[in-house]
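Our consortium's second objective concerns turning raw sequence data into structural hypotheses that experimental partners can test. To show how far this objective has progressed, the report includes one record in full. It was chosen at random from the queue rather than selected for favorable results. The single chain below, 298 residues long, was entered without modification.
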Amino acid sequence: MKLLFEETKLGNMKLKNRFVRSATWENMATEEGLLTDPLIKIYEDLAKSDVGLIITGYANVLQEEKPNPGMMGIYSDKFVNEYQKLTNLVHEYGSKIIMQIAYGGTKTTYQTEERIIYAPSEIPERSTHTVGKAMTKEEIVIVENAFADAAKRIQEAGFDGVEIHGAHTYLINQFLSPYYNKRTDEYGGSLDNRMRFLNEIYGKIRKQVGQDFTIVIKLTSSEFFDGGLTFDDTRQICKKMEQIGVDAIEFFGLSRPLLAEPDLIKRWKEGVRKKAICLSCSKCRTNDGNYCTIFKKG
């Protein structure tokens, strides 16, 4: 436990401890993706509880691409001043905060009839059964640029870094997956080709934010079904990410216990080492957002 409270570095970020709150969809932003007082309070409570690094819930990089209601937005410059209030607040407590950005793609059932949803190939998503439009190279560039522009806004808003969401069958994950990616151009086929979309997104982000801004990538370890992404594939992807300069890859963090006890880290730091009350029941994943349905709501 003592090691967890030691200072450490992640990229160029100096963290006061090793506790990381992983990204969590709260369903508390406005329809446009703007912050609300209850959402700000969640992040303030996490910072008050001495969480070393807070990763926000995912934010959409294109206005029309919204996999879930109530998620934060970062698709426009109008968000920069809005998020500066949040980053300043978190920094007052000595915590660091990075924003997760994503393109959901076909991992959604939200307003699917009202918008065009991109995918690497026209393969139904296994859980939602949503089918997307196979992207042209021009559309690939549009999405890549949207990620890069979003990262620049994140930097300008005072965040300490950005996390690229490459997991959970979202668009980047689908490009990496041999199950979902059936392309025959330079973005499909071999693992090197399937990594191209992620590599290009990273490269464009790095060009926008410079070498000193921390870039983290979240990956799926395995898709756990025949024909999907394997552990060996992910090992190779991780090696490639290290080679091109990614600062960190996310495989470990806290979310569910902090939904039940936002002050968990603080009480551990103060010496109250009783077990977390979280039951790991996963009932916190609801259609209304992620919150503890047993001990705490909101």
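The partners drew two points from this record. The chain has a mean pLDDT of 94. The longest helix spans residues 137-156. Both points have been shared with the crystallography group to help prioritize constructs.
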